[in-house]
Specification:
By secondary structure, the chain is an all-alpha fold. The chain has helices spanning 4-7, 16-22, 27-32, 44-50, 55-66, 74-79, 82-111, 117-153, 163-169, 175-186, 194-236, 245-255, 260-267, 271-285, 290-299. Helix 10 (175-186) packs antiparallel against helix 11. It is flat. It starts with a helix and ends in a 10-residue tail after the last helix.
Length: 309
Amino acid sequence: MRGTHERNGMSPAMKMADLLDADFSLLGVFYRMGLSLGFGEESVEEVCEKAGLDAETFLLICRVHLMDGYRPSREALQNADLSAILGYLRNSHSYYTKVLLPNLETALEELIVPCEDQQKRVIRRFFFDYRQELLTHFAYEEETVFPYVEEMLNSQDDNAFTIGEYEQNHSNVEEKLVDLKNLVTMFLPAPCQQTEAYKVLFYLSSLRQDLAKHTLIEDEILVPMVVRMEEVVAAARPEGEELSAREKEILVSVAKGKLNKEIADEYNISIYTVITHRKNITRKTGIKTVAGLTVYALLNNLIDMNSVE
């Protein structure tokens, strides 16, 4: 029986050179995965082994980039190396800030050379604001999300954060690129040169497409893998464990009769995060019903009778 990798045309046994020939857009992936060119006749598995990289994880990322609408199977996620995924995402940040964004900025500066000063200022401000938004997004991942994942990998549990909170803060970093594309294609100032405009659009397209794949890897690979780790860690915790500060806040809201959507809006978190907290509260207290949790909150002086509907 042919395996999944063979059916979709990718397997660890195929030649690495053939994989790159299939689509040169993978060059950016190769760069971020730390692969050196000069593969010769070596297979994907052989090249990855030399680079200290898991071949299955490498191919998983390649599939995301090459196959529109691709969603990894449970088996693919179970076989993937989370530390390699994390390394790839970190290297992507560097790739964007040191390669793609500077290329786009240079092309944009060349495009607006003949523009009036006010037009230049407006266009520059638009780009700089976007770049800052992107850098802020990356900083949140670098300073909060990725360290949390590393703690999970090192069997260190931090109750102050869950991957569900990351989903709530996972902003859309592509919208302004679409606006910039529309400005160039439909409202380009007359003095601008068409050659420079096409160059800007090329770099815009490259960045936009890659960011979309980057987001897909985070949403469909990173988050599900970490959620599974959180579930395993949660199941191993003994019942009766003390509630965290956030869990107490959620408990109070539940005791006051608020719905998950209302709680999510109150604390600016996703409904998924509220559900995760409620599961943890039930596991720690052993109490499943709203009425029981209300009594628990009263007995532990988290609320008073006047605040209960």
